[in-house]
């Protein structure tokens, strides 16, 4: 009376593990009691609620029968709960290694590199709009380059980098030679720009090539937030139609935005029948896509924002166009409050 029977042990036929413990284990490991399985969402919910309390009660009720079994189960429970708890894995000081799990060619010289995080529930821990550093030892020297992942922290268990390989680009060439299963050293977050809901009434984005990645991250974050009312216009320049990165993703975001996001492509070498911009981004193209009412203010920190990211020659040209339209020149190191921010 008052104590539930134990199951028969495998040593000497003596009672060893109480039925209460068997039942508790079935919540943690539905597939097979007392064997190691990845916990289900149901089991984790239970664990977060009262499993520890139940283990404590069992220890008081069955001190002799449990012995080392309770210690083992407690250690196992701690391991599984720690594994299931979402973590942010970036460190701004320490270089951490991440394993390349997938490489997808996006064009003749650009690829998506997918890196695994330590656990499936982990996130990178990168504020929207910031970037990371990639480091490699090349010819005996440590070389670093900054990249903005195309993924958000909602994308658990991995992060993606979209990188264009340049013939004289040390890190881009290094990444192109990394094979599946090899590790790359990462550190971060870095950067002065952090996007938050309703940061500005309107964002005018001007991007070229892989300069699309910080824009794409911000666009995704803004559009998934129903309370964010920021309007976004993207002017995206490339050489040829096949060079347009994330085109389907951008088109899908625009189609589902109820007019809050508009994308306009400009190609140096457009195909026959191309209906959008041709040549280079001009002052007139910027003027057509800038917010209603134009500049808003020639001073930093007031009105809509312009975000720039792309090859240096293109960015120099864009600064000139924006100056002619009355926008303030971007600082040498842009700040979040700036009306014109250069990534």
TrEMBL record:
Protein keywords: FAD, Flavoprotein, Membrane, Mitochondrion, Mitochondrion outer membrane, NAD, Oxidoreductase, Transmembrane, Transmembrane helix
Query: What pathway does this protein act in?
Result: Protein modification; peptidyl-diphthamide biosynthesis
Q: Which reactions does this protein catalyse?
A: 2 Fe(III)-[cytochrome b5] + NADH = 2 Fe(II)-[cytochrome b5] + NAD(+) + H(+); 2 Fe(3+)-[Dph3] + NADH = 2 Fe(2+)-[Dph3] + NAD(+) + H(+)
Q: Name one GO molecular function term.
A: cytochrome-b5 reductase activity, acting on NADH
Sequence ranges assigned to domain FAD-binding FR-type in this UniProt record: 93-196
Positions contributing to FAD binding: 145, 147, 162, 164, 171-172, 213
Per the record, the similarity remark reads: Belongs to the flavoprotein pyridine nucleotide cytochrome reductase family.
**Designated name of the protein:** NADH-cytochrome b5 reductase
- Tell me the organism: Papiliotrema laurentii
